[in-house]
Design goal:
The structure is a homodimer. Chain A contains 20 helices and three strands. By secondary structure, the first copy, chain A, is mainly α. Chain A has a three-stranded mixed β-sheet. In chain A, α1 runs antiparallel to α2. The longest helix of chain A is centred in the middle third of the chain and has 25 residues.
């Protein structure tokens, strides 16, 4: 088999695994979890075996040898397959299987721990998962610290030191900015619920379709923790949850996931499973979700058009003026939960997680110290302590899935989103359309400048090509200041 | 790897495939079908490769050589694995892949053909699928006719000639019985709908749980064509559709699928993937679904208890007497659609399909002759011609999935169901409980006499052990006469 056939085979196995994971989160009966873990571990192991087999490595070497550089996409694909392959072969297959099993167990323990707000339920699993991360970092190798090796898996071409510096720049401005924003945020209110789930489903689907999510090749289901996953080149699944007291919270969640989904739907379908048909990095992925959620979704222009639609669906909004509604969706406050945090305070949550993950990997703190470290750092940034661990160090799913090194990409996404939105709306036609909440030209710009490239360019190069400069905090801070101060 | 580990691996791959198929029928977006076919073909091919590899055959031979016969379940497993293996190795892997692709394409073409009631859309696909069936029958080999080889895959240990004889015995009594039943069926009515879908969902779930379906390890979703599938040792999925004009139609559908599901839930979970942890045959599987749907679900005893519950849920039933309701659910008529047929006429539909399949495989008719042959045979049994092919030869999903040889097992199921119900209710405690619509003792009897054996015994031997005699039409005809004449 030639390399492209082998890549196709691996994509078939991996995407089958995504279907199993999607079902695990959406519809799996409560008593059926154990065997699902085995099925997922089998597919993960099988994909890893395929990607590290001698036959695969030979097909890759052959393809590299015959590449004459005439097709830049082909060359980029070979470069990225090689990069991934060099990482994969360092991880023994049995480690993949053991880690997959530990992640499934960790995920279930995390659910129980969060429910009971009892860190001790999750601690032994977290210990294992951090050990797996450290073991993998050692196997991959790193120049400065183990976290570098993990980060590379989510955001290639960056380093812990670079992130730390970028985050420090951001934090210096964001700390006073967020405090000021919170202080001047006027009291806000929304007419009381219930906002019925069925009506939220209808309204959210209208909004997702209007901004460009294609329901012909995608859908929205219900989960505890919203996510977006791709089950095939034309099969993108969003999930959300519902809150009857405030429909806006999960509407922004759906716009966020739809942003991820539109990126996936904009990738070259013919290259599915190849780097050029895959998202380039989580920092770019998150830029797409945050752009639609925040740059678009929380803008007055968006609501000029969609507030009347919302009023048609939710009767309690009918006498409630747009101006007060905007105040509600642009309110800022210091709250313990990341996923409920507003734009002006969100990155403080990320910076905290980045610091803790780095300390864990550098063995500067033990697992047992996670709750107290979390609470100390939280108090430092937010001025109070989370009421319990469920609203503290147990709130996020990521560690339970082995996703250590993932969090920084959220803030990279915020930074990229602002920079991309600024560059796109510098085009007069896009700016004019966006002012009327017509988002087709904006999506077309993103398709052209981001989506269609897949993973052929490095994230930094992609941002430079799209916006004229590498990612910087400038556009983002300017956006936050203009919206919140 | 030893044989049991290899069987475990194959079960992981096959059950992963079931998850993909389940999603294909329940939630797959309309534009996502193509790649799903590729994913399914890959998993089917991979499982076939595993089951026909030299390593597998060696592990099987090793296990056979060391079997001392001291554990009858182990010996039965080896016998059945060998039987399956001897069949599998005769089918080249590329045929499995090509057939899987043809089935996916055939399935989509069938949906379009049925919608348009245009046989020509489906004909080229059916041609291919019949050719695949004939090719496989040739590869498997047979003594009398190709259909024998297909039948063996669904109902081991029987023959086309034996089925033809059994069906002829049945038909001789059933033809006058059904005509009489239809003639004497009093006009029936049900208070007009709508019976809201959400309330049907609630009521159907209550009934399914009451008869013993375990929602902790199972669920019900919505599809165009109801089915039951097993995604893991403790993960059984039923599907149904809804009709707002008459809630009973799909309630019986749910009881039917729950019967299949309870069988699957009663198989030894520790033996998942082994013959002893798998259903023995479709004729036994169908006996479980038909027993709950018809022997139980259409009985007056069942409704003595559940009609008040139905009245609580569907307000239009409140003034409608039980006696009239029973007349509605026990009405008989000659109708073109198998899945809507009542007990007294159902098997005439099956006998027709069996005859057509046999003719197709014996090349006595061409694909182009299927609609006219269908209509001729239908008129012969039912006295009228189906109004169109959508309600004639295009009504069933089976051929589109390559399931030629499957239909006879429905009538075997009816025969077995009556015989099992008679044997179970010969136990006084079961009969007393069933008279009060308490079905726990009946389910326990089925668990003990059918479910726990998995596929260790042949279907005929299992029926003999459970009821004291091999399958015969006696109990079934007696049941039909007593209920419908």
């Amino acid at each position: 088999m030639i390399l492209s056939d082998r890549m196709r085979e691996i994509a078939l196995v991996n995407s089958a695994g995504h279907i199993l994971s999607w079902d695990q989160e959406t519809y799996l009966p409560s008593g059926s979890a154990d065997y699902r873990s085995e099925q997922l571990a089998y597919l993960a192991t099988h994909a890893h075996k395929l990607a590290t087999s001698d036959d695969f490595l030979k097909a890759l070497a052959d393809a590299e040898q015959t590449d004459d550089g005439s097709d830049p996409v082909r060359t980029a694909n070979l470069r990225e397959i090689r990069r991934e392959s060099d990482r994969s072969v360092k991880i023994p297959t049995d480690l993949v299987a053991r880690e997959s099993t530990a992640q499934s167990a960790g995920h279930h323990a995390w659910i129980a721990a969060r429910k009971a707000s009892d860190f001790s339920i999750f601690a032994p699993h977290l210990e294992k998962l951090v050990d797996f991360a450290a073991e993998k970092a050692d196997l991959w190798g790193f120049v400065n610290e183990p976290y570098d090796a993990l980060l590379e898996g989510f955001e290639r071409g960056t380093s812990t030191a670079a992130i730390a510096e970028l985050f420090e720049t951001l934090r210096k401005d964001l700390a006073p900015l967020s405090a000021q924003a919170v202080a001047k945020s006027p009291p806000s209110e929304l007419p009381p619920g219930p906002y019925p789930v069925e009506i939220q489903q209808t309204f959210n689907a209208i909004v997702a379709a209007e901004i460009g999510f294609d329901f012909h090749t995608g859908r929205i289901d219900t989960t505890a923790h919203p996510f977006c996953t791709t089950l095939g080149p034309r099969d993108v699944r969003l999930t959300t949850r519902y809150m009857e007291t405030d429909f806006t919270s999960l509407l922004f969640g759906v716009m966020h996931e739809a942003g991820h989904g539109m990126y996936e739907q904009g990738l070259p379908a013919a290259d599915f499973g190849m780097p050029s048909g895959s998202s380039v990095s989580l920092g770019i992925h998150e830029s797409q979700s945050r752009l639609w959620e925040n740059q678009v979704g929380r803008s007055p222009e968006f609501w000029e058009k969609f507030y009347p639609v919302a009023q048609k669906h939710f009767q309690q909004l009918r006498g409630f003026p747009l101006e007060k509604f905007l105040r509600h969706i642009q309110r800022t406050e210091f709250s313990p939960i990341r996923v409920e945090a507003d734009e002006a305070t969100y990155d403080l949550h990320i910076i905290l997680r980045f610091r803790i993950e780095r300390m864990l990997l550098n063995r500067e703190i033990t697992i047992a110290q996670v709750p107290s470290t979390w609470n100390d750092l939280f108090r430092e940034s937010f001025g109070f302590t989370p009421p319990d661990d469920a609203q503290g160090c147990l709130q996020d799913i990521h560690w339970s899935m082995g996703g250590i090194g993932y969090f920084p990409t959220y803030t990279l996404g915020n930074i990229n989103a602002a920079q991309l939105f600024k560059a796109a709306t510098a085009v007069p036609e896009i700016s004019a359309a966006t002012a009327k909440a017509d988002y087709a030209p904006l999506l077309a710009w993103l398709r052209e400048n981001i989506h269609r490239h897949g993973g052929a360019l490095d994230p930094t190069a992609l941002m430079e090509q799209a916006t004229g400069r590498p990612p910087s905090t400038e556009a983002y801070l300017k956006h936050l200041k203009s919206r919140y101060l």
